[in-house]
Amino acid sequence: MDGIRKLARKARMKIRHHGWGRVACAALLKALGHNRWLNVLRCHCLEEVNPAFLQFPRRYVGGFLSPRALGEFSRDPEASISEEFVQYALTKGDKCYGFTHDGSLRAYGWYATTPTRISRDLRLHFSRDYIYMYKAFTHETHRGKRLFPFGVTRALRLYCAAGYKGMLLYVDANNLDSLKSCAHMGLRVFGTVYIAKVLGRYFICSTPGCSRFGLRVEDVSAAAQRSRAFGDSRVAR
Known about the structure:
Blueprint: H1 2-18, H2 20-32, E1 38-46, E2 61-64, H3 67-73, H4 83-91, E3 95-101, E4 104-112, E5 116-117, E6 122-125, E7 130-138, H5 147-161, E8 166-172, H6 176-185, E9 188-198, E10 201-206, E11 216-219, H7 222-236
Parallel strand pairs: 7-8
Antiparallel strand pairs: 1-8, 1-9, 2-3, 3-4, 4-7, 5-6, 6-11, 9-10
């Protein structure tokens, strides 16, 4: 009974925080197999710097991290960042804006200007006029201090100064807390990408709003490459 009461109390809090509609939608996605064979990505855009999030958080040091610093932080298991990933991201020119606290990396986000893998089999493309923000992380002991909006806003200001129009990112459709956080920051949803994997094959569909930002998801799995190679060979004949 105690377990049932806890679940009911948790459900009531979630409904009060997000509303019936959003909670029901998230529950439906979970029932349909979200994050197993189905993914629904809500695509967001941020083009204006909000001065409210430019104030530097006290007792934190923030900025783009050097390759040497990232190498050191990757050896800290609490930073949730691997040497393999750091090497991949830096090789393709991505940058990491992070906050340190007492010398430890406690929040960060990665920023890309070139197509970027969102999984082993999928790669996201977007307009060169925008930057793509991904792999956001905040250590559990430092959540609630608004490090995510501070970092995103400060990074956006730097990229806009360099000539970019704005920032793109996506949030899983059942991640209600992140969706609400993005809305509070002023990010707007411009489109949705639906990804289904059936019998080893990906079916990907994007809503019309994605085209303005050149946002699309490409299947780069071995199966897709074999299919393309087979198609090319048939054309050559």
